[in-house]
Amino acid sequence: MSIKLTPLPLSVKADRSKLAEFGREIHGVDLNNVTPQQFAEIREALYKHEVILFRNVKISPADQAAFTKAFDTTSGYGHAFDPSISEISTRLLQMHGIPGVPEVQLIGHGTVFNHEGVARADLNHPTHKEFHKTVVSPEDEAKGYTRYYRWHIDAAFYDLSPPRVTSLYGAVVPKGIPQIVRYDDGSGDELPVTLGATAFVNTNNTFELLPAEYKSLAVRMKVKYAPHLYAWVNNTHAVSTGIAIENEGLEVPLGDLPPWTEEKRKVLSVLWKNEVTGKLHFQVHPSIAHELLVDPLPAGANRTGALYPDGAHITDLRTVRDILFKIQRPGIASSLVYAHDWQKDDLVLFHNRGLMHSVTGALKDDDLRVFHQCNLHGSDDPAPPSAEDIKMYA
């Protein structure tokens, strides 16, 4: 039996011309008995639509891990969370590995007892107040205003390749008064969301929105990431949109981080090629980008108005962040965001090489939220632009 797909509901602010293919709910599949044909269709749907949803699912952590691994069969455990540096990073998510299935992490909010073999877990839903330089006032927070926490990609970006797929399962989902995400950057932009919604953006839109000179730059550019990402940015603050780090000089010096080696630092193209659709996605984790490397324009390319036509190695952190912010900020406009309204027993899979996502909102002390998260490091690095792509855009 073939699967059935229906569009996910978009916000009233959504630009439907740019989100027409983004997000699908899948019907007619028993996840305990997925046929090879159905899995092939599910995989194609994931890469084409970036986010896929299964409602009313009962799935064990072991089965969730197996289903996630099926999208990259030689992948392995690879959370960005590194217990060895937890003592110097207060920004690590409070994650608890589920006994026997360490690749599935228990995340959420509130205190959980005797859950999937975990005797007790004290969970914390991160909010912008823990990370942003400025925060929503208590008066506005009481009116329901909030922010994105941090736009990111699930990956360690040190030694291990980024996961292809992340799966999230809503075991306990709190319900409460909807909130309004404010950008607070002078744009006046805002987005109504349900309590604890997860926000997603398709980073192919980020690339497609770029003017020609920035598309030329993107196809020639790589990013070098800092090692031990959470420890490096532990003392820093994010801008109000959650898409960049403030330039305050608060990063932990690389020499003061836990031991690391240069060859394990990830250097990746800023554009990742979708292995099914062939589309280019501007995929950079902005919080932990450390350097940019730009190739020169290819022979015969038009140099008029070109950025860094002779190539460059950009190590000034402010410049790195300014370039990435100029590219990435338009891609998180409210008209381009899908904010998932969680229901109990939702299983959401997202293409971690084709989008960015962010936690939203703030939960009260008595709001219980229990999720199972699984992402596995990739078996290889994402595909960069092809020679044809470079010829087309450079």
UniProtKB/TrEMBL annotation:
Keywords: Dioxygenase, Iron, Metal-binding, Oxidoreductase. One of its GO terms (molecular function) is dioxygenase activity. Residues 17-374 form the TauD/TfdA-like domain. The keyword Repressor does not apply. This is Taurine catabolism dioxygenase. Belongs to the TfdA dioxygenase family. Its cofactor is Fe(2+). It holds the Pfam family TauD. It comes from the Eukaryota. The keyword Membrane does not apply.
